[in-house]
Amino acid sequence: MTTTAMSGSSGSGLRSKHLRLADGSFRLLALGCGLLVLAVLALIAIFTTNQAWPAFSHEGFNFITSRVWDPNNHKFGALAFIYGTVFTSLIALVFAIPVSIGMALFMTELAPPRLRTPVVYLVDLLAAIPSVVYGLWGVLYLTVPLGKFYKNVSSLFSGVPLLDHVFRGQAGRSFFTAGLIVALMITPIITSLTREVFATVPLTQKEAALALGATRWEMIRTSVLSYGRSGVVGAIMLGLGRAMGETIAVALVIGSFANITISLFQPGDAMASVIANQFGEASGTFKAALIGLGVVLFAITIIINIIARAFVSRSERVAGGAA
Amino acid sequence: VATLGVTIVAGCSSSKKTGTGSSSTTSGGAATTTVANLPSATLNGSGSTFQQAFDTDAIQQFDSAHSGVTINYSGGGSGKGLQDLQSKLVDFAGTDAPIATADLPKYTGGVLYFPTVAAPITLSYNISGVKSLTLSASTIAKIYSGKITTWNDPAIAADGNSGLPGTKITPVHRSDSSGTTNNFTLYLKKAAPTDWTLGSGKTIPWPGGVAGNGNTGVATAVKQTDGSIGYVDFSDAKASGLSLASIKTASGQAVPPTLDGASAAVAAATINPDLTYDPTNATGPGAYPITSPTWIVIYKTQADHNKGTVLKAFLDFLLTTGQTTIAKNDNYAPLSSNLLQQAKTQLDQIVIP
Q: Chain B neighbours among A 155-214 (CB < 8 Å)?
C-alpha cells in the first residue's frame, strides 16, 4: 500500500520533472523561433539600408521625391517607380477584391457540393502557377489584343473631361496590363483565405438570419460578410503584399518607362521590376540605389501592414460592439 | 584538385608541372585544337550574355575534348561578371565594355583583356510592305529621342528611302540594363553628337517608346507592333526573321549588318595596348558601324596552377577553333587577324604558379 503510493508519487514526481523540462525547452524553442523572425527582419533591414546608404546619402530626400532616374548621370529619383508600384497594385485590387469575394461566396454558400471541390482545387492550382508564366503569357498573347482594346476604349472616352485622361493611351504594355496580370495572380490567394474565413461563420448565425425571413443575399450581407470582415481585410492585405512585391510578371508587361500619370493605358515602371531589370549591370551608387528601392518597398509594405492591422482591429472592435 | 587528368599527349601550353607528356610549346599560331594533357580543374565564369551563346558552344567542345575539365559560364550581365571577378567568385568574366578606369585598382595584380568575337547590333524593323530601309546615325538618334515620329518624315526619305508609309514610329528599347544598349548609344553619341543628347550607358532615360526584356524581348515587341524599330543583336535578329536596316556611314555608304561588316569594323578600330578597342562608328570599306566588341577578362597573375593552365588553354581554344568554326556557326564575327595575333601573343603574359 505505502510502497505503491510511494512509487506512485515518486513516479509522478519524475513525470512532472520530465514535463517541466519538456515544457521549459519547448518554451525556449518557441521563443527562439519567435526571435528568429525578428532577427531576420532586423538583419534584412540593417543590411539593405547599409548597402543602400551611398545612394541615400547621395540623393537625400530626392530619392523618394524626384522622378529623374538617370544612372549614367548619377541621378536616382524613385518617385515614378513608387507611384507605379502603388498604381498597379491598386488596379489589381480593384479587380481582385470583388472577384475573390464573389468566388469565395460561391464556393461556401452557393455552389452545389459536387461542384465545390473541383472549383476549390482549380483556384488553388491558379495560385501555384509561377509568376513568370503569367508574365510570358501576358507579354506574348495579351499585349497585342489588349493594345487594340485600349485604343478603342480611349477613342470612346476622348473629349470626356477627366475620363479622357484616365483612359488615354494604347500601350499593350502598360500600368493596366500589369494590374490585370497581378490581379490574376492575387485573386486565388485572396479567394482561398476569404473562403476559409467564410467557412468559419457559425451555422446558427446564418440560420438565425434565414429564420428571421432574410433572403439569401440578406443573410450573406448580415451574417457572412459582417462576421468575416476582419478576416477578409487580412486576406486582401496579403494579396496586396504579393501585388506590390511582384517582380518578373510586372517587369515583362508594364512597359518599363519611368512615368507618373493617371492614364491607365500608358507604360510605367514599378520598384520590384526596376530592381530585376537593372541589377545585373549595376555597380557602385547605381547598385546602392537599386538596393535602396528594395528598402523603400520594404518600408511601404510595413506601413501598409500597420495600417491594415489598425483597420482590422478597429473593425473587430466595431463588430464586437455591435454584437 | 591536384590530380592530373592524364589523357593523350599533345602539347598546348607551356605548363611547368605536368607529370607526363612532352610539353612542346606551341604558343599562338598553329591550331592546337583538340587534345592536350590538361590537369583537371573546374573554371567558373559569369558576365556578358552577349557572348554567352559563343562561350556555351566553345565550352561544350572544350569540355568534351578534355576529361577532367569543367567550365561553367553563367551569364548575368557584364556588370555582374566584373563584380564577380572583383570578389574572386569567378575565374573569368565576360564583358562588353572595358572596366572603368576608377575601378581598375580594385582588381589586385591587374587584369588581361582577351577579345573573343564581335557582332553587329542590328536595327530590326517591322513596317508592313517595306522591304528595305537605310538609316543614318542622325536619323536613328532623332527616332529614339522622339523627334521623328512617322515613317514618311523627310529626314528618313533623305537617307535614301522612298515610298514609306505615314505609320507612327514605335522605337523599341531594352527594359533591362544592357551592354547592347551601351554600345548602341555609344555609337549614336559618336556618330550623331548634335542629335543624340541622352548620353550613352547601359540604362538610358528614354523619352518614350516601348521596352522589351533582353534581345528577344525587343525582337518580340518589334514583331508585335507595326511601324516599330528596335536594336537587337545579330543572332537574335536572324532567329526572329525580322527585316534589318542598313546603316548609312559617315562616308555616305549604306552598309547592311553582316558578320563580315563587323569583322571589317574590328579591323578598322584602333587597338589599345591592353587590347581594348571601340569598333563603333568605325570607318573603312564595308565596316558596319554599330558593332559590339566583347572580352573575357582574367587576372594576370593566376592563383592556382591547374586553373591557370586550363584557363590559358581555353582562351587559346577560343582564339583558334573558336574563330574558325564556332563563331560563324553562332552568328558572331571572328576577330581581325591583326587583333587575333595580339591576343594570342598576350596569352604568354598570363602568370601561372
A: 171-173
